[in-house]
Amino acid sequence: MAFQLSRIMRPDDANVAGNVHGGTILKMIEEAGAIISTRHCNSQNGERCVAALARVERTDFLSPMCIGEVAHVSAEITYTSKHSVEVQVNVLSENILTGAKKLTNKATLWYVPLSLKNVDKVLEVPPVVYSRQEQEEEGRKRYEAQKLERMETKWRNGDIVQPVLNPEPNTVSYSQSSLIHLVGPSDCTLHGFVHGGVTMKLMDEVAGIVAARHCKTNIVTASVDAINFHDKIRKGFVITISGRMTFTSNKSMEIEVLVDADHVVDSSQKRYRAASAFFTYVSLSPEGRSLPVPQLVPETEDEKKRFEEGKGRYLQMKAKRQGHAEPQP
Ligand code: COA
Predict the structure, then answer these.
(1) Is pLDDT at 142 greater than 50 in this prediction?
(2) Which residues approach ligand 1 with their CB closer than 6 A?
(3) What is the pLDDT of residues 70-96, one digit of tens each?
(4) Do 47 and 127 touch, CB atoms closer than 8 A?
């Protein structure tokens, strides 16, 4: 079962240089994933449900998409566990003047069906039919790997971003930024909870502001690390999305984004961490070439620790990319 959506890219989908925002692409990916997984989870008679986004695996932005191009987003269910659905999504950009098509993104998303009657009830997923037996085995391996990775990243949830007065340029405090958003009906699913794509778009917006404040040039999203959506965000809640730079390499910037939700009126409900992720940005010249970035100056012990952790992630991903690029002996 496959699903495809196409949409022309408009000026409000892009930055001033005409590049479509990473967040816009993430939102389209999530829309396609939510449709195919909700359709699949309701394909057998039984309790009706909406599939909620639980996780997005690391995704790279492989080539830029521009205003006037058409985004073709295709989604396919590639694995089902008892309570979750894995969806693979590919994004192609089409230049409708020349017909040229480029692969922009490949993403893997995990959805969990939640009952329409009781949003806290996770339903069982109808098993998908595999065309080859190996597909099920490979899917199970990916499922087990992400489960393990989720347990290891739980520690990040307690951290908060504090404002600092009169920060020096190139420090973490100088570029750290926050965005506060009231969750309205157009942000929400049939349950009245925020769509994962809406949250990712806002996260990308904050990360982009941090990157631009740091290097003061046009910037683009290069990749997003795996994102786990720990908790639902209800209509009427206020979300605070905070971003801070954690690491710079010669030409890239890593930004950590934290999403916290709270009920503004009911003070008995505590503020909670709904999601967190690392975005990597690249600085671009007016001609669209990647530029060296000012080096981040970590000041506190925590900032220095986060810088070293960011460097570890950077070196690991670089080694992986080079491993893919070079032919295996
Ligand atoms: N990534 C992938 N799968 C996940 C997951 C994650 N981050 N968290 C839970 N799951 C899967 C589990 O593996 C399980 O499937 P399995 O039984 O086949 O292994 C299934 O979800 C249910 O797990 P369970 O432990 O019963 O539920 P939970 O209490 O962990 O709740 C969610 C899971 C997804 C319902 C909950 O974390 C949630 O509500 N998240 C927010 C969803 C949302 O609102 N998304 C949009 C955010 S803006």
Answers:
(1) yes
(2) 52-55, 81-84, 110, 112, 114, 122, 146-147, 150, 193-194, 196, 199, 228-233
(3) 999 999 999 999 999 999 999 999 999
(4) no
